[in-house]
C-alpha cells in the first residue's frame, strides 16, 4: 500500500508566529517588512493603483513638483512619476527576486551537500566556490548584458550565480554545526535517507542564516539592478524602471532636483529595508538558538550520576557459531602525523540474538567508537582499517552507504545518552515518530498514527496522544529517552546499541529505563549492546560483559564471574572503585594515572604503566586475549595474581 502523509504543519506555524512576535521587539524590522510588502503590492497592483499611463507624455506639464493631480510630480516629458515608480517597481523587484531565487537555488544545495557529506564533495564544492569568488562580478555582468542584449533576467540570474558562493559558505558552516547534533545522527541511524534528513531536519535548522543572507543579498541585487538601469541596460525607454528613472532625473538635477527624490528615496529605503529585515531575522533566529542551547544545558545540568543496583544471575557464555553480531579483530584508526593512530585495536566480541551484552570501561577507552563502527557511523576521518563486523553473516565493513542505510534502523538501531538532543527540536514527537515508522512500514496515515501511539504506550508513556503533540523541549529527560527508545524500536531492529542510555538521567528514572529495556528485550527478543562506564547498569541488565581499556578488550566474562573474580587488573581496579564494594570507613581505592591517548599506547600490555602487578615481560610483546575459564578470557599474562585488592587508595 502506498500513500503519503500530509506534512505536520504544526511545526512550521509556531516558527512563523515566533518570528512575527519577535518583530514586535524590532519595530524597525517590522517597518522594513511593511514597506517592502507595500512596494511589492504596489508593483502587483500597478494597473489598478497608477493614476496615469506610465508612458503617457504631457509636455505642457513637465518637470513639475508634487501637485494635486501628480502627487510625486512629473518628469521632463510630463510623465507621472508615481505611475512610473509603481510600474518601475515591477522591473526592479522582479530582477531582485530573480537574483535572490538563483542565489538560494544554487548556493543552498551546494552548502548543504558540502557541509553534510564532507569529504570529496566538500572539496569539490570548495573548488567551485573559490573559482566563482575569483570572478570579477561587475565585469562579468557587463559582459553578460553585452552578449544577451538587454535581457535583464539573464544578468540578474548571473548575479545570483555569482552571489551563490557566499550563500554556500554560510549554509555549509551552519550545516556542519547541525550535522554533529545528536538528533541528526539519530535520524540517520533510524534509516532515513540523506535527502530526507537534509530536507526535513537540516534545512529547517539552517533556514535562519539562509533567510538573513538572502535578505542582505536582496539589497545588493536591487542596487545592481538599478545600477544596470541607470547605465541604460534592462527596461528601455519609455518603459520605466527605478534605475532609468534615476538616470532621467540626473540629467535635470540642476533645474529640477525634486525629480530625483521619488526614485532615489524608494531605492535607498528599499535597500535599507532589506538590511533591517535581515538584522531582525538574525536576532530572532539567534534568540531561538540560545533557547535551544538553554534546553540542552538544562538537560545536561540536571544529569546525575547513576547508582549501582544489584546484580542478576548470569547465563552461560554463548558460543560464536550462531551469534547475530560477530566482531573479529576490529581495528579503527585515525590519520596522524606519523601515519595513522589506532583508536581501537583487534577488538573481538559477539552477541547472540536475544542476548544483552555490556561494554564497559573508563572514558576514552574506545567503547563509543566500537558502537559507531557497528552502526557504520564512524566520524570522518576515522575509519575501519582492519578486521570484520559480521551482522547475521554479512560483513558491515564492506557495505556501501545505501546498504548501510537500509541496515540501520531496520536491523540495527541506536539510542544515545542525550535523548533530548537526539530529537529534532523543530518537529513534534508525533511527526518524528511517524516519519520513522513510515520509513519502515507502509500504511495509511491513520494506521501510522495509531502505530506511533501504540509504540509510545509500549514504552510506558502515559497520555501518548499528548506526547505526540509535544515538542522535544517539553519532555523531561526520562520521557525523551522513552521517545528515543520508541523511535529506535520503530523499525523492529534485531540489535539495539544503547550508548550510555541512562547517564543523563537521575537515579529513579535510570532504574525505570533499565527496567523498560529489560522488558522490551524480553518481548521482542532483540539483542542489546549496552555501552556504559557504570558497573551498576551492566550488572542490572547484562548477561555478559566486555571490559575495554585503551582500544582493546582486556577481559570478557559472564557478569557474575566478572564481579566474583575479575581476571584482569584493570577490571579489578574498576570494580574496586565502586562505592558499594569498599569496606565501611575505608577510603575508596583508585587506579592511578590516565588512559593513554591513541598513538601513545605502550608496547606490550596497554595497562602495564598503571598496573601494580606488572612485570618486565608485560612491556615486551603484545598480550593476547586468553581463556582463563569457560567463557572467561583475559588479556593479562598473570591473571591468577589478580584480585580486587591490587589497588589501594594510595595509588592516587
Ligand atoms: N572524531 C574523532 N577523531 C579522532 N579521535 C577521536 C574522535 N572521537 C573520539 N576519538 C578518540 O577515540 C578514543 C576513543 O573514544 P570513544 O568515544 O570511543 O571513548 P569512550 O570509551 O566511548 O569514552 P566516552 O565514554 O567518554 O565516550 C578517544 O581517545 C578519543 O580521543
TrEMBL record:
Pfam families, per database record: ABC_tran (PF00005), BPD_transp_1 (PF00528), oligo_HPY (PF08352), OppC_N (PF12911)
Q: Where is there biased composition of kind Basic and acidic residues? A: 292-305
Q: Name the family the entry cites.
A: Belongs to the ABC transporter superfamily. Belongs to the binding-protein-dependent transport system permease family.
Membrane-crossing residue ranges in chain numbering: 96-117, 124-148, 154-171, 210-235, 255-278
Low complexity bias (residue ranges): 306-316
Q: What is this protein called in UniProt?
A: Dipeptide/oligopeptide/nickel ABC transporter permease/ATP-binding protein
Q: Which PANTHER family is this protein grouped with?
A: DIPEPTIDE TRANSPORT ATP-BINDING PROTEIN DPPD, OLIGOPEPTIDE TRANSPORT ATP-BINDING PROTEIN APPD
**Record localization:** Cell membrane; Membrane
Entry-linked SMART domains: AAA
Residue stretches making up the ABC transmembrane type-1 domain? 89-278
Q: Which SUPFAM superfamilies match?
A: MetI-like, P-loop containing nucleoside triphosphate hydrolases
Q: Which InterPro entries match?
A: AAA+_ATPase, ABC_Ni/Peptide_Import, ABC_transporter-like_ATP-bd, ABC_transporter-like_CS, MetI-like, MetI-like_sf, Oligopep_ABC_C, OppC_N
Amino acid at each position: 500500500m502506498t500513500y503519503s502523509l500530509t506534512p505536520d504543519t504544526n511545526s512550521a506555524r509556531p516558527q512563523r508566529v515566533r518570528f512575527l512576535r519577535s518583530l514586535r521587539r524590532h519595530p524597525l524590522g517590522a517597518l522594513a517588512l511593511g514597506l517592502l510588502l507595500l512596494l511589492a503590492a504596489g508593483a502587483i497592483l500597478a494597473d489598478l493603483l497608477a493614476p496615469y499611463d506610465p508612458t503617457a507624455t504631457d509636455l505642457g506639464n513637465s518637470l513639475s513638483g508634487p501637485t494635486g493631480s501628480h502627487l510625486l510630480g512629473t518628469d521632463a516629458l510630463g510623465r507621472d512619476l508615481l505611475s512610473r515608480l509603481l510600474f518601475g517597481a515591477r522591473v526592479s523587484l522582479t530582477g531582485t527576486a530573480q537574483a535572490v531565487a538563483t542565489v538560494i537555488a544554487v548556493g543552498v544545495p551546494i552548502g548543504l551537500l558540502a557541509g553534510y557529506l564532507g569529504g570529496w564533495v566538500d572539496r569539490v564544492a570548495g573548488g567551485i566556490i573559490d573559482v566563482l569568488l575569483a570572478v570579477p562580478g561587475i565585469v562579468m555582468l557587463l559582459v553578460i548584458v553585452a552578449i544577451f542584449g538587454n535581457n535583464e533576467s539573464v544578468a540578474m540570474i548571473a548575479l545570483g550565480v555569482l552571489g551563490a558562493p557566499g550563500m554556500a559558505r554560510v549554509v555549509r558552516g551552519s550545516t556542519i554545526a547541525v550535522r554533529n547534533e545528536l538528533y541528526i545522527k539519530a535520524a540517520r541511524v533510524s534509516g532515513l535517507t540523506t535527502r530526507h534528513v537534509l530536507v526535513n531536519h537540516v534545512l529547517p535548522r539552517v533556514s535562519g542564516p539562509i533567510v538573513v543572507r538572502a535578505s542582505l543579498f536582496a539589497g545588493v541585487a536591487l542596487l545592481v539592478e538599478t545600477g544596470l538601469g541607470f547605465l541604460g541596460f534592462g527596461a528601455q525607454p519609455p518603459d520605466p524602471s527605478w534605475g532609468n528613472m534615476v538616470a532621467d532625473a540626473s540629467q535635470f538635477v540642476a533645474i529640477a532636483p525634486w525629480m530625483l527624490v521619488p526614485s532615489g528615496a524608494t531605492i535607498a529605503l528599499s535597500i535599507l529595508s532589506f538590511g533591517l529585515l535581515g538584522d531582525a531575522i538574525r536576532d530572532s533566529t539567534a534568540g531561538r538558538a540560545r533557547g535551544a542551547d538553554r534546553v540542552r544545558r538544562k538537560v545536561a545540568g540536571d544529569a546525575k550520576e547513576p547508582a549501582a543496583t544489584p546484580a542478576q544471575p548470569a547465563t552461560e557464555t554463548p558460543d560464536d557459531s550462531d551469534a547475530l553480531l560477530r566482531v573479529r579483530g576490529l581495528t579503527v584508526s585515525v590519520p596522524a602525523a606519523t601515519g595513522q593512530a589506532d583508536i581501537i585495536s583487534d577488538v573481538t566480541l559477539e552477541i547472540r540474538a536475544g542476548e544483552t551484552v555490556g561494554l564497559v570501561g573508563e572514558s576514552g577507552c574506545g567503547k563509543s567508537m566500537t558502537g559507531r563502527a557497528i552502526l557504520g557511523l564512524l566520524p570522518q576521518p576515522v575509519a575501519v582499517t582492519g578486521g570484520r563486523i559480521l551482522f547475521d553473516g554479512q560483513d558491515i565493513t564492506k557495505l556501501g552507504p545505501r546498504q548501510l542505510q537500509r541496515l540501520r534502523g531496520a536491523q540495527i538501531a541506536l539510542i544515545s545518552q542525550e535523548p533530548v538532543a537526539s530529537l529534532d527540536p523543530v518537529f513534534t514527537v508525533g511527526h518524528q515518530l511517524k516519519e520513522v515508522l513510515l520509513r519502515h512500514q507502509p500504511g495509511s496515515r491513520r494506521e501510522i498514527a495509531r502505530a506511533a501511539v501504540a509504540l509510545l504506550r509500549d514504552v510506558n508513556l502515559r497520555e501518548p496522544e499528548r506526547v505526540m503533540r509535544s515538542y522535544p523541549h517539553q519532555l523531561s529527560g526520562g520521557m525523551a529517552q522513552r521517545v528515543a527508545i520508541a523511535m529506535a524500536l520503530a523499525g523492529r531492529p534485531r540489535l539495539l546499541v544503547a550508548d550510555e542510555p541512562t547517564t543523563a538521567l537521575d537515579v529513579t528514572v535510570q532504574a525505570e529505563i533499565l527496567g523498560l529495556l529489560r522488558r522490551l528485550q524480553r518481548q521482542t527478543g532483540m539483542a542489546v549492546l549496552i555501552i556504559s562506564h557504570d558497573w551498576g547498569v551492566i550488572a542490572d541488565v547484562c548477561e555478559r560483559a566486555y571490559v575495554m581499556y585503551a582500544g582493546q578488550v582486556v577481559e570478557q566474562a559472564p557478569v557474575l564471574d566478572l564481579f566474583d573474580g575479575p581476571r584482569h587488573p584493570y577490571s579489578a581496579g574498576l570494580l574496586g572503585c565502586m562505592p558499594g564494594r569498599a569496606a565501611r570507613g575505608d577510603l575508596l581505592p583508585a587506579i592511578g594515572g590516565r588512559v593513554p591517548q591513541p598513538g601513545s599506547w605502550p608496547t606490550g600490555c596497554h595497562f602495564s604503566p598503571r598496573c601494580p602487578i606488572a612485570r618486565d615481560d608485560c612491556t615486551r610483546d603484545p598480550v593476547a586475549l586468553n581463556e582463563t575459564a569457560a567463557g572467561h578470557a583475559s588479556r593479562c599474562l598473570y591473571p591468577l595474581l589478580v584480585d580486587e585488592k591490587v589497588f589501594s587508595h594510595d595509588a592516587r
